[in-house]
Amino acid sequence: MRAPTGQAKEILAALHRRIGTQKFNAWFKHGTSLLVQNGHVKLGAANMFIASWIERHFADAISAAAAEVTGRKLQLLINVDPDLSGRLRRRQLDAQAVLVARGRGGAARAAAVTTCRLQYRLEDFVTGPSNRLAYSAALEVARTGKAPYNPLFIHGGCGVGKTHLLQGICRAVAESPATRRCAWKYITAEQFTNQFVQAVRRKRTGEFHRSYRHLDLLAIDDVHFFAAKKATQQEFLHTFNAIDAAGKQVVMASDAHPKMLGQLTDQLVSRFLSGMVVRIDPPGRSTRMEILRRYAARLKVEVPPEVLTYIGEQIRGSVRELEGALVKLAAVAGLTGQQVSLEMAREALADHLVQTHGAVTLGDIETVVSAFFGITPADLHSSRRLHTVSLARAVAMYLARRHTRMSFPEIGRSMGKNHSSVVLAVQRVKKMLAENATCRWSTPAGPKAMRIKDLLALLNEQIG
After folding, report:
1. What residue ranges define each of the domains in the chain, with the CATH number in brackets?
2. According to the model, what pLDDT value does residue 105 have?
3. How far is residue 359's CA from residue 77's CA, in Å, rounded to a whole number?
4. Which positions ≥6 away from 65 have C-beta within 8 Å?
5. Cα–chain-centroid distance for residue 162?
6. Segment among 110-119, 264-273, 305-314, 322-331 with least mean pLDDT
């Protein structure tokens, strides 16, 4: 971590006390930065995976720590800062992989989470060709609490708005007079898993069933987390069937299409496909420009139109990357006391644009590959050498070279590897292609095999 000063240092100390040494060292000690400025807490993360994980698991703890130190509520902004990628440590990456695999993240296993905080509203969602169908489907559920399709399954890469839609649906249902009395719940698949495990251990499965199976609306995020968890998958299948049989609604979000989620049972995949499956792609140019204008207003930063145009044309990935670029510009302007200018944007965002230029980002690739193999992005970043992880990592590196402008060293820094590791991984995949080799990997359901050519074709289709 960059050496923090003043209130930022105190907030980090308070956060350390709240979440404990293990989690703090794994997620915050290196590869993040923290700045307190203009009524905001601005946290930078080394890559999209870490930014997403911190946002979903530690946002409340960071906000609470900031309030403890400053005595007031500050808005939390989390963005990706590629400059931090070189600060990650191998032991830290391995610790992240272990924590994700155990499903511990930022919340204790024993916590009986009812709902996550709802940060988003549907009316704040910026629509465009890439997300209009998903937004329309979400509106249909929000208006009545029930759509003609069940479930509604939204999928797409990190930072494209899936969580925004799920939380927006729940908020609309909670606030509308027509649906206010509906029993609803927004929860992540990780939290569902943790609650189920605790219910089994405490012999309270009946209580667990009652808390879910009588809901009018269940919105469950990060469904890909169910991979390799057979007992939880079976429980969720029963939960889904009970809600569906009662004529109620289930809405889900995932990093990948149901068919691309590795280590899920055929029964569960079949149920997911029985409703409406809709994909959200990265935003188009006009959508990106509107997102930038709204976010600049939210940050209360005056950004000239030519700077917004520059960012919108250069960054074509996720919404979070667009927001991250603006946060970085705002921080630079605040630290230097200068007005935001095109020259400042070009200089401040040079490294950022190298890693985000193009329609596909490394974060998109990691999301699709890890979901397909039933592992996590944290596994790709770790030093684990299990065959499945090694194969997935090599495929991700190969696809990164094909779909992005990132160099071997840049890919290595982002994934916690060195230059030679990336070169060898890409050569390995190229050799397999030349030999028309068959990939083999293990899953809890048994071994799987697929020709490398077919495997890459599936992943390329998903990546877009």
Report:
1. 6-102 (3.30.300.180), 122-279 (3.40.50.300), 285-356 (1.10.8.60), 362-463 (1.10.1750.10)
2. 42
3. 24
4. 11, 12, 14, 15, 18
5. 9
6. 110-119
- Interaxial angle between packed helices 419-434 and 387-403, expressed in degrees from 0 to 180 and rounded to the nearest 10: 90
Residue 134 near residue 154, CB atoms below 8 Å:
yes
Q: What is the 3-state secondary structure (H, E, C) of 132-185?
A: HHHHHHHHHHHHHCCCCCCCEEEECCCCCCHHHHHHHHHHHHHHCCCCCCCCEE
- pTM for the predicted model, two decimal places: 0.70
d(CA 382, CA 393): 10
CA–CA dist 222, 253 (Å, integer)? 6
Q: What is the mean pLDDT of residues 20-41?
A: 84
**Token pair for 299:** 């940050």
* pLDDT tens sequence across 245-256: 999 999 999 988
Cα gap 19→406, rounded to integer Å: 35
Q: Which residues are CB-neighbours of 263 under 8 A, at least 6 positions away?
A: 227, 228, 374, 443, 444, 445
Q: Where does residue 247 fall: left (phi above 0), alpha (psi -120 to 50 degrees), or beta otherwise?
A: left
